[in-house]
Each structure stands twice: as structure tokens, then as C-alpha cells.
Amino acid sequence: METTLTINQLSRRSGVAASALRYYEERGLIQSERRGSGHRRFTRATLRRLAFIVFAQRLGMSLAEIGAELEKLPTDHVPKGADWSLLSGPWSARIDERIAELERLKTGLAQCISCGCLSLEFCRLVNPHDKAGALGPGPHYWLGDKSSND
Amino acid sequence: METTLTINQLSRRSGVAASALRYYEERGLIQSERRGSGHRRFTRATLRRLAFIVFAQRLGMSLAEIGAELEKLPTDHVPKGADWSLLSGPWSARIDERIAELERLKTGLAQCISCGCLSLEFCRLVNPHDKAGALGPGPHYWLGDKSSND
DNA sequence: CTACAAGTTCAAGTAAACTTGAAGTCAAGA
DNA sequence: TCTTGACTTCAAGTTTACTTGAACTTGTAG
């Protein structure tokens, strides 16, 4: 039994389309060795890397951000539990923040939207610490105007 | 004092770019009256509608989905608290689901990814009830292959 | 040896959610 | 009246994350 995987094997095992895998490789998120013919071979460790990528996407991260995170993994050996754990601390915090925001939204939905008090106040709900920024597509900046005098 | 808002006034108050407001109007998410000149005038109620739109986007909904939700509001009068409340029930549930997923992800980050047990198992974390589907961009289907015999 | 499945590259297409630019019209203060 | 600044439309461009198709090569089972 071979210890490496072809692109379609990896695709089947991970659920990520082969075209996406090629794309990820092109973006530097995963790596492969090439056979003489040019065919890719992936190590099984790539499965974990992919799990992390999918995971992070569900958290709303862009591939660019994910790539930056993955660069924190050591390159001198195959990353193991301890290496992944290094990432997981900040990530738990990240998830907690997101959960906290959702809780605020939920409260706001009940109180603020339904009662009719709503206008600019809503911004504090969505983004209480004024860090409008790279939040993906969509309007990025309730609270964008600091000196609102109208 | 005018009771209606120009597009730039609405933009400043909502934090949503004027170009985005035109786009939303084109998509039917908001409405405006037109002056003889063709200039748009928005009612203040539009602010609440916008708040809802931004809110929903933060929950990861597409404009199409948001539009569908907004259609549930009555058109025979300006929606008030009670009307918005009608939407808020299902929405709380929606938020709760999302929070639950994040909790699962958090657990999984600690246990599954970092310990090394990971591969296909991860799917159950991301999508425990096998409803891979329209989850936005990204690989949609850990668990996409029911009959994995390799 | 011959199919045919599986692999390759590269360019172009897609979808969502906007933004930008051009070219022109309208409104308001000095 | 003149001159900005705000507004209009419409077409085209942008970004992210891929997918699709064409044209071609490799690998393998019979």
C-alpha cells in the first residue's frame, strides 16, 4: 500500500474537489511531490492540513489569512499535535469572540430591532470596538463616521 | 426639517456606501421615492431595514436570502416592533445554531485537529447532520462521499 | 497493444457584492 | 448668474474562491 495519495484520492478522502486542491497548491496552502510524469503525490499529513483549512473557512477566514496561519507551522518536520496546539490557543479566542458577537446580535435582535429604537445605535451591537475592516464583502463600516453631526 | 433622507444622508447615517444603497435598491431590498429630478428620497424607516440587512450579513446570509426574509414584512403599513418581532424568533434559532457550530469547532480544534486523530472524522464536526450544501464559497462537502470504501 | 480512466496545464468562466468611472443633470449659496 | 457639490445612469472593473473546458499525456487493465 502506497503511503502517498493521488489528487483524486485526496479529494475523495477530504471532500475537497480536485480543482480546489490544485488551486490550494498554487496558493501555497498545501504541497505535493511530483512523479516523473508530473503527477502529484500528497502525503497523508495533507489531510490534516486540509481539515484545518476547511475549519478556518467555516470561521470566515480568507485563504490569505489561512495561509498566514499555516506558515506558523514548523517546516523542519511533519507537524504533530504539539505544533497544531500552538495555533489552537489564539484560535479558541477567535472563536470565542465570534460567539460573543453572535450573542450580542441575538440580544440586539430582540431588544433593539424589534422595539424600534434602532438606527445608528445598532452599530455598537455589530462592532462594539470600532474595528470595522476586512470583514469580507458587504458594507464594512457601521460606525465609519466618527464625527456624525447630523 | 425634512423627514426624508437623500442617498448621502442615508449613507452617512447607516455607514453603508451610497453605491451599495443603489445596489440594494436595484436588488429590491430597499425602496425610495423619486423627486421630479430623479433624485432618491428615503424614509427613516429605511434605516431600520438597513440595520437588519447588515445584521443578517454578519450572520453570513446572502442578499438573496435577506431579501426573502424582508418580504415577510407587511407592505400595507410601515413595519413596527411587532412586525419585526415576527422575524426575530426564527432568527434567534438561527443564531443559536451558528453558535452551536462554533462550539463544536472549538472543541474539535482542541481535540481532533491537534491530537492527530483527524481525517474524515472531522466532517462530523463541521457538519454533523450531513447537510452539506449552499454554505458559501469553499469546499462544500466533507462527507460528500457516502460510500467511501478506500 | 489498445482502450480508457486519470492526470496535466493554461486560459477563461462564474457568482456575489459591490466599487469605480464616464458623462451628464440638478440644486444651492455667493 | 455662476459655480460647486450632490445626484443620476450605465457599463465595466474588482475580489475571492473556485470551476470548467480544451488540448494533451500517463498509467493500467484486458
UniProtKB/TrEMBL annotation, chains A, B:
InterPro entries per the UniProt record, alphabetical: DNA-bd_dom_put_sf, MerR-type_HTH_dom, MerR_fam, Redox-sen_tscrpt-act_SoxR
Entry-linked SUPFAM superfamilies: Putative DNA-binding domain
Annotated coiled-coil segments of the chain: none
Domain HTH merR-type: 4-72
Swiss-Prot/TrEMBL keywords: 2Fe-2S, DNA-binding, Iron, Iron-sulfur, Metal-binding
PANTHER family with a match to the protein in the record: REDOX-CYCLING DRUG-SENSING TRANSCRIPTIONAL ACTIVATOR SOXR (PTHR30204), REDOX-SENSITIVE TRANSCRIPTIONAL ACTIVATOR SOXR (PTHR30204:SF0)
UniProt-recorded name of the protein: Redox-sensitive transcriptional activator SoxR
Organism listed in the record: Mesorhizobium retamae
